[in-house]
Structure formats: C-alpha cells, structure tokens
Amino acid sequence: MLEINIVKKSYINKPALSDVKLSFPRGEIVGLFGENGAGKTTLMKCALGLLPYKGNVTLDGAPITKKNIEKLSFATGEHSFFPELTGAGHRDFYKEHFPAFSDKRFQGLTEFFGLPLHRPLRALSTGQKNQFEVIFALSQGADYILMDEPFTGNDVFNREDFYKVLLGILEPHETVILSTHLIEEVADFIGRAVLIRAGRIVGDVKTTELEDDGKKLIDYVKETYMYQPDRVSRALEQITGEDAL
Amino acid sequence: MKKLMQRLSPPGMNVKAEKAITVICLILSALWGTLYFLTNYFIERDVLFTVRGGKLVPKQGAVISEFAMTVDPGMLFGFYVTMLIIAGFTLFRLAYFYQGSKSIYLMRRLPQKGETAKRVLALPALWIAGTALIMLLFTGLMAAVYLLATPKGCLPAQPFKNVWEVFACWKLIS
Questions:
Q1: Cβ contact A69–B111 (<8 Å)
Q2: Are B106 and A121 in contact (CB under 8 A)?
Q3: Binary contact (A84, B14; C-beta < 8 A)
C-alpha cells in the first residue's frame, strides 16, 4: 500500500499541496486529474522523494528510502532517460540497477511499438521518446508505476494502443497512477479517479461507483469542478457584444 | 578500461572530449614547464661559467642555487590549470543530467547510494590524481636534469633543500 499522509508542499510561500491524504492499494489503475498547476506533478514528485515536502509518504508502512525506492517507477512527459544513450543502453543500465527489471516485457513492448534499440533516444520522435519513457517505467519491475502526462505528443491511435497493452500486461500486484488531461480517453481503462484542485484532493471515486450511479467520468469531473457549461457563450458574448447562440 | 570509464561517467556521455582536453592540457603543461625550467636553469647555470682561453670553464667556488630556488611554482602552472579544468568537468557532468531531459530524476530513483556522485566525481578525481602524479614525475625529471647538467663541483651541499616550495601553488596567486 502506498500511503500519502497529510502531505504539504509550498513553492516560495505559494501552497502547491495542502494536507493531501491518499492511499493506493496494489492492483489499481488510478487516473489523477486536475487543471494545469493543480498539483498533480508535485504530488508525484513528492511521493518519489524528488521534492522536499512536509508530511510523510510510506510504502507498506515504511518511508520511501533507497531500500524500497525500486518499488516505484516514474514516466514523465519531461522525460527522465539519458538522451545520448540508446534503448539497448538503457536496458543494460536498468538491468544493472533494478534487479527486478523485466527484459521480457521490455523486449515485447519495444517490438510491439517497433522502436529502434540502437539509436540514441535524442534522435527519435517525441512519440517514440514517450513510448520509451513509459516502457522503462513498466519494465523496471516496480509495484507502483507513476505516469505524469506520459503521452504528450503521441497520436490518438498510439495512445489507445498503449492503454490496451497496459491493461494486458499489468500483473495483479502492479498499480498505475496516471496523471493526464485526457479524461474521456482513459475513462474505460482506469478503476479509480482522483481529482486534485489547487493542491487539495476534491474527488476520489471508483469508476464502478460511477457506473452504478449511471454517471460518466467526465460528468463527475465537471460536477466536482463546478464547471459552468455556459462560460463559453458568456465569454463570446462579452468579446463580440452579440448573442453567441 | 572503456567499461570502467563508462561506469564512472553519466550514461551515454562521450568521455572522448574530456580525455582529449586532458591530454592536450598535459602536453601543453609539460611544454610550458620544460621551457620555464630550462630558461631559469640556464640563467643560473650561465653564471657558473667563465671563458678562459676561448673555453667555457666553471668559475672557482661558484655554486648553483638550490633546485627550489632555481625554479619556482611557475614551472608547474600548467599542471595546476589542468587540474582546475578537470575539476570543471564535474560541472559539465552534473549539467548532463539536466540536458535534453531530466535524467536526474532517474539517477535519484536508483536504489544504489551515491551513484550520481560517483558518476560525476570519480573520473575527474582520478584524472586529477593522475595529473598530480605526472606533475611529480615531471618535477623529478627536471630535478634529474638539474643534477646531471650541473658540474658536480657547482652543486650546493643540499641541492633539494626546501624542495616542497616548488609545489607551493598558492605563491602563483600572490
């Protein structure tokens, strides 16, 4: 169980996370949603120990240290690979440093996406770079795979393929926490949605609960964020001075 | 050797440029040091001789200055600059983890302690140690030239008295 207990984080007196409390059991696919600047990336970076914070994050009751950090992996839209190193070079690096690295999964995924293994990653397209970033995170052998906007720059077909592959390869003990803006696109693939706004958790729901209520995920998100459907028409009216509709 | 260098460098980094810079700096340092030594040494040595009957002969009772007085830390200036340049490689190595991606995130997620420090500091530290060793050998070579090229009767009683002063790099600043 990955537990985030009353985590606070500020950037120069501007709160980025306020008393965030969440827990993630093994075997879930969780969507983390929120506007730009809501705190999604900050939350992930705090969980990984990449940013200092107040509060505590534990994995199976133990704080995240060098002893258990290998149980967490991270794929980020910023990319965390070595641009000058090839895919094969990365495989060797991961194998050396992460004993649970799955060569089989790495090989299967790189073959599926037709990724070149002997070119430096900097020479690849943005889509291919993203694919490598996600493949490394999935192959590391982690129990918790944190993905922060990993598909920026990938076309819709590519993304669809990835979600399907993800569902097909995940083991029951693996949890994916996926931060994305593509709510409708991932709605069918996630089992739980966590909504964050201005550094606070404003919604946390299982998709089965939404189904039971006959609600769509996007509607739940809009409702939670108090989305005003007429805001576009009002803005257009204000700009053009005419009735928008 | 190549594998060891790769293990002590940021993954994917081309170490060739660092190697080339280090070798060029060492060659220039040795050239500078040799010229510096020979210029200073021959000024001191010339004083020892006089021309008698058209021949160069040692002056009666003339004694050359001690080795540390003949040369000063300026002889090793190039080696110190080389060490500073190598120390500067650590900054480039650290910056490598922020160039084109944030690979520092991956480095910080590694289960092994000190992996980033190892890949940033170890090889430059080894090269600095190597440069210091070459500097010592070079000084030894110049000392051998000093001993062998000076007529025996012109050597001081303690030719290597206060020899450590040759390495007093702080004197270069003052």
A1: yes
A2: no
A3: yes
> What tokens were used for B167?
């390495």
Query: Mean pLDDT, to the nearest integer, of B4-15?
Result: 92
The per-residue pLDDT for range A11-52, each reduced to its tens digit, is: 888 899 999 999 999 999 999 999 888 999 999 999 999 999
Global ipTM: 0.89
CB-CB contact of A22 with A144 (8 Å) = no
A114 CA: distance to closest CA in chain B (Å)? 22
Is A88 an 8 Å CB contact of chain B?
Answer: no
Q: Which of residues 200-239 of A touch B (CB under 8 A)?
A: none
Percent of chain A having pLDDT more than 70? 98
Report the sign of the C-alpha dihedral through residues B31, B34, B39, B42, in that order: negative
